[in-house]
Amino acid sequence: MSSSTVSTVPQQEAAPTARPSFIQRHRRTARQWLERSAALIVFFAVWELLPRLGIVGSAFLSPPSHVLQAIGQLMESGQLFKHVTASLQRSASGLLLAVAAGVALGLLMGVIRRVEAFLDPLLQLFRQISALALFPVFLLFFGIGEVSKIAIIFWAAFWPVLLNTISGVQQVDKLLIHSAISMGASRSFIFRKVILPAASPSIFTGIRLAGAYSITALVAAEMIGSHAGLGFLTLNSQEIFQIPSMYAGIVLLALLGLALNYLLALLEKRLTRWRSGLQFHE
User: Fold this and answer.
1) Which of 88, 89, 111, 140 is the most exposed place for a label (fewest CB within 10 A)?
2) Does residue 97 belong to any structural domain of this protein?
3) Within the chain, where are the H helices?
4) Which domain holds residue 229?
5) Whole-angstrom Cα distance, residue 206 to residue 200?
């Protein structure tokens, strides 16, 4: 009797991939944090050592430990809250006005070419004028109060928002617009559902740049007629030769700029969630 025997070898199940343990995950996170923070660690270490070793006089460069002590003293006296609050109010007011005006005018110029052709020469002239150069003009018109300080921050933050908004609108894929028109979409629908979402990444880039410029202009805005603010703290500490407090003001301005940039990036991520789905399908 001839029989064909078929040997069946049981298939070995693939071994499940071992998930990293709790310790391994935290080691990986710590390693990534160290890699990202290495430059900062080296920078602050060198900064601490230079005045302590006498390479640079401590009268000119206070070590970070003294700067932290100065920040602690400002917190204990309540001065830190006063300075941060004043700077935040001025920076936020100028930035919000710049975003509102820049986005509105940028959308108008980007959509209507005749408006852009009419206003572009004038705006190209104005954008060459530094906010610092206009500071005396703002003082003449608005005095030394809060309005002149907000005006200089507005001027510095307005241009990146405007230019990036115009660029974002003009770079919208024309195929998307023509496709919407061929399907009978109205102009308002095309603007709300096609142009505005497509231009939003460029608009948010301009807003984040404006946030950085608003912090930079803050120091100039608080140069004259201020009694509070981080810019005032920095300049006043330099005049009375309180060097640790001066560096404390500089560090706090940098931290304020980082916090503002993080908040704007978080806002951009929330308002443009649709982009993640689009990138996934691509």
Assistant:
1) 140
2) yes
3) 22-52, 64-77, 79-111, 113-126, 131-142, 146-170, 174-182, 187-190, 196-221, 230-239, 243-271, 274-281
4) 64-271
5) 10
Return the residue matching tokens 């078929």: 6
Return the pLDDT at 19.
59
Whether residue 278 lies inside any domain: the answer is no
CA–CA distance, 157 with 151 (Å, rounded to integer): 10
Structure-token pair, residue 106: 């940028």
- Helix or strand or coil: residue 173? coil
Please state whether the predicted TM-score (pTM) of the whole model is above 0.85. no
Domain-located, residue 23: no
Q: Is residue 121 part of a domain?
A: yes
Confidence band, pLDDT 50/70/90 cuts, at residue 1: very low
Token readout for 182 is 């061929």
Helices (H) and strands (E) in the chain, counts: 12, 0
Check residue 225 and report its DSSP letter: S
Number of domains into which the chain is organized: 1
Instruction: Round to whole Å and give the CA distance between 242 and 237.
Output: 5
State the Cα–Cα distance between residues 211 and 176, nearest whole angstrom: 31
Amino acid identity of residue 116, one-letter, is E
Specify the 3-state DSSP secondary structure of 184.
coil
Q: Higher confidence at residue 256 or residue 35?
A: 256
pLDDT at 281 over 50: no
The three-state secondary structure class of 96 is helix
Residue 21 predicted with pLDDT over 80 = no
Looking up residue 83, the CATH number of its domain turns out to be: 1.10.3720.10
